[in-house]
Amino acid sequence: MTILGIMAKWPRPGEVKTRLAAVTSPQWAADLAYACLQDTLERLAVVEARRVVVFAPRSAQDDFARLAADRFELWPQADGDLGQRMQAWFATCLSNGAQRSVLLGADSPSLPLDFVRSAFTRLLQHDVVLGPATDGGYYLIGCAGRVPPIFEGIVWSTSSVLAETVAKIQHAGLSLALLPPWYDVDTLDDCQMLRGHLTAQRLAGMDHGASHVEALLNQ
């Protein structure tokens, strides 16, 4: 069995995309986070796997249920830092019988679906798969067989996350598969890059599937 997880925080103003909020407004940043979440769930709903929204806070469960409809299960995030929450999620996947599990966030609304499908395929022959993000972190991580010891001692939300994670993978003697780099949307520059990318895709006749984000950025 395969499990696909989307880790998400309910987009309340002042609690999400704080770097973007500082140069726009907390409400606009929350609106963008909501649009990213909408597009991510709509696009990933076609991936053949047991699909789960890993949500926070627990008080937002009803909000997530309305948005996810019957396309995703809802699992609350564990307590702790990002690494502890991801580690707990992969452990839960294993206890539910998953052979391959892939986790990503909702900050890359234009991420090609083929990258996600490829992650599951590569886990047939590798212990870990990573999707490097252009900000020095990663937009996707997947594990097969067991929870790897790669989530502790990482300085999260920095440009060294990917390098630190790869070092831990190497130290543990695990095999690694790598997806193409992609970008998250966390800053105003990221928004401008995304707007240009979506416009170019539409002009080129490509269906990017990020209509909610595109409409907000074009306002």
Written overview of the protein:
With 219 residues, the protein is α/β, with parallel strands linked by helices. The chain has a single domain, classed as Alpha-Beta Complex (Spore Coat Polysaccharide Biosynthesis Protein SpsA, Chain A), CATH 3.90.550.10. The protein is 42% helix and 18% strand. It is built from eight helices and seven strands; from the N terminus they run βααβαβαβαββαβαα. Strands 3-2-1-4-6-5-7 form a seven-stranded mixed sheet, with helices on both faces. Helix 2 (26-44) runs antiparallel to helix 8 (211-217). The radius of gyration is 17 Å and the shape is globular.
Labels describing this entry:
alpha/beta, 7 strands, 219 residues, 8 helices, Spore Coat Polysaccharide Biosynthesis Protein SpsA, Chain A, globular
Number of strands: 7
Uncertain residue segments:
none
Computed structural class: alpha/beta
What portion of the residues fall into strands of 2 or more residues? 15-25%
**CATH-scheme architecture:** Alpha-Beta Complex
Helix and strand pattern: EHHEHEHEHEEHEHH
Alpha-carbon distance between the two ends? 42 Å
Shape type: globular
Query: Which CATH class applies here?
Result: Alpha Beta
Write the layout of secondary structure elements.
Blueprint lengths: L1 E8 L8 H6 L2 H19 L5 E7 L4 H8 L4 E4 L5 H14 L4 E5 L8 H10 L5 E5 L5 E7 L16 H11 L4 E3 L9 H16 L7 H7 L2
Parallel strand pairs: 1-2, 1-4, 2-3, 5-7
Antiparallel strand pairs: 4-6, 5-6
Helix pairs in contact: 2-8
